[in-house]
């Protein structure tokens, strides 16, 4: 099992949000000690996000298990070099579509060649990391933002393409009326510099089970 990491800024963020925002003041105490968790490594996390695109969580897990079984290491840490060595036909037998095979191979080649600067990410701005990630086939801005929140645990990401976030803001701030991205951005301004934390609590308000990537 991979080591689980939680952000060291969480308690400070909760205090800040509770002071600044009436909805957060009510939401945060409902979830006690639960908090964002990060596990696995960068390549595996992104590979899982590609495998899970447009299929149910249960189906994604089944495909992932078959895919990981083709590799020699544990399923929570797969290597780009091994993925590149596997024949396309073998990847297809795991239940991956031709497009997802292309995406996984492109992801593996970006990591294997050093086109993504994993070791420098800690010192890089969020937008610079997003730019590197969206250059990989099959990774859009939303996936890159989920990666920033769930893997790198960046504190101030506001994923405006996320339907759950927009729905949660609609229910918690606008009595269920539909909200535009501009209105969501405005609500999110009050959450800075801890917009990731507020987003996590908005997701919890819709589904008490923590999301993990």
From TrEMBL:
Report whether rRNA-binding shows up as a keyword of the record. Answer: no
What is the enzyme's main class? hydrolase
Q: Which SMART domains match?
A: ENDO3c
- Give the EC number(s) under which this enzyme is classified: 3.2.2.21
Q: Give GO BP annotations, semicolon-separated.
A: base-excision repair, AP site formation; DNA alkylation repair
The keyword NADP appears for this protein: no
Query: What is catalyzed by this enzyme?
Result: Hydrolysis of alkylated DNA, releasing 3-methyladenine, 3-methylguanine, 7-methylguanine and 7-methyladenine
Q: Which UniProt keywords apply?
A: DNA damage, DNA repair
Q: Which GO terms describe its molecular function?
A: alkylated DNA binding; DNA-3-methyladenine glycosylase activity; DNA-7-methylguanine glycosylase activity
InterPro entries per record? Alkylbase_DNA_Glycosylase/TA, DNA_glycosylase, HhH-GPD_domain
What Gene Ontology terms describe where this protein resides (cellular component)?
Answer: cytoplasm; protein-DNA complex
Which residue numbers delimit the HhH-GPD domain?
A: 51-207
Its family remark reads: Belongs to the alkylbase DNA glycosidase AlkA family.
Q: What is this protein called?
A: DNA-3-methyladenine glycosylase II
What is the originating organism of this protein?
Caldimonas thermodepolymerans
